[in-house]
Amino acid sequence: MDKTITSEAALSSRISRLPEERSRAPEFYGFVALTSTYLLFGLYVLWALLPDEYIEWTGVTWYPNREWAILIPSWTIVVILLTYFVYWALAIAATPSFNDMSVLTDSRINLPNPPADPGFRNRYFDSARPDAIPELYDIPIGMVNRVLYRNSTSDRRRENA
């Protein structure tokens, strides 16, 4: 009996939480758009393929020249391809050059503040201790290059000289 009461209470709480009645207008607009699209495509195919006698028999006395049956899809494809090309060209034009600093960093860079005391150690060295939990900083590209490429041949020549 307790299970029945519990399930009825759960059911009534679910029913009370049902969403409010919403408009079904988007469904009708979608249906109208779908059917009108199919209807217009059917008329386009009939206009493009039927001989003139059949079209005039239906009572239509004026209709566009048949060359538009080829021109409209061709122009549509060209416009779509041109759109892709323009977006690609805009993306290439907006890309900074390789020697621009914005390629390496942005406005949200998080560098440590320079120390006011000249005898203060660099904050990057604080994270080198084994028990350290370092603060989160971006590493400047110059420091990365020094660490990665310090043993290059030019550095070895300088050290040997």
TrEMBL record:
<dbReference type="InterPro" id="IPR052263">
    <property type="entry name" value="GPI_Anchor_Biosynth"/>
</dbReference>
<dbReference type="GO" id="GO:0006506">
    <property type="term" value="P:GPI anchor biosynthetic process"/>
</dbReference>
<keyword id="KW-0472">Membrane</keyword>
<dbReference type="InterPro" id="IPR013717">
    <property type="entry name" value="PIG-P"/>
</dbReference>
<keyword id="KW-1133">Transmembrane helix</keyword>
<dbReference type="GO" id="GO:0005783">
    <property type="term" value="C:endoplasmic reticulum"/>
</dbReference>
<feature type="transmembrane region" description="Helical">
    <location>
        <begin position="70"/>
        <end position="94"/>
    </location>
</feature>
<feature type="domain" description="PIG-P">
    <location>
        <begin position="27"/>
        <end position="149"/>
    </location>
</feature>
<dbReference type="Pfam" id="PF08510">
    <property type="entry name" value="PIG-P"/>
</dbReference>
<protein>
    <submittedName>
        <fullName>PIG-P-domain-containing protein</fullName>
    </submittedName>
</protein>
<dbReference type="GO" id="GO:0016020">
    <property type="term" value="C:membrane"/>
</dbReference>
<keyword id="KW-0812">Transmembrane</keyword>
<feature type="transmembrane region" description="Helical">
    <location>
        <begin position="28"/>
        <end position="50"/>
    </location>
</feature>
